[in-house]
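USER:
Try writing one entry.

ASSISTANT:
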Amino acid sequence: MPKAATSADVAKLAGVSRATVSFVLNNAPQSIAPKTRENVLRSAKLLNYRPNLSAKALAEGTSRVVLFDLSAPSWHGQAVHVLAELTTALAEHGLVAAVHLDAPVRESLVVTALRIRPRLVLPSRALSPQERAELDDAGIVVVEAPVTEIADVEGLAAQIRLEHLRRRGHSRIAIAEREGAGLASVVGTRRHAVLAAAAELGIPEPMVVAFHDGASAVSQVQRIMAAGCSAVCAFNDDTALATIRAAADAGVRCPQDLAVIGADDIFPGSVSFPPLTTVKVDFERLGKLLAPTVLAALGVANVTPPPELDDVLTLVVREST
């Protein structure tokens, strides 16, 4: 196996000192001529040079790890796309992303953080006062950007969905939710977002129903119709598809009697009968939205401005509304 290139190898090829290599690769504030900087970067690429992050962390007295928490169910499934963007952005600055997963048997986020001493913790949920105090006492920086961005994205998605239903002539709207283990957090987040958006738009407060199986879905659709609602804003596409099926079983036509809109844009929604109207979240763009906040918190200068929040969401109009 060939020996890994060192900073001395890069310096020799570029014809500069090791200090200059360090300044360039670490984006240090020292003034380096553009031609020299380009030469160092080209040499590092030719040699496939990778900094020794352990040595770097030891020299700095801190970790090169950023710990990303995935204990909020709203990040599950699509989180890989967000992490891909964050990982790329961090790698450009010699940092590594680590993930704390939610699982039945696990150590807490705080315990994990105390074990690896990350440079930064990015929680995907609101931390308890005790958790925040323990991390603060350990000198571990917490940036709650993911929590804020989740709330912002959910709020805008709710507004987009309700505005669409209102344009279709609906003012009596129901929220259909799923019951299940591990869903309480994200279900609550989306319910709150829809209720807040309804209040802001002057729409009467939506009634809330929950499904736990097929029979309950049919009975809840019957409740929705009896209450005079003409549209359902579902927790997600799965729940929206269950609503459409339950409506058919109850003899309710979609969208003639009951319009249904989902969230997340899963593939089955595009081929259902009728095809499902939904809101799509561009998780790669969401990662790009988070990356500048994370880099700024790490003290990185000249961070590329993030995309607009509106660019993260797309209304996909199909026949269910």
Q: What stands out?
A: The longest helix spans residues 145-167. The chain is about 50% helix and 15% strand.
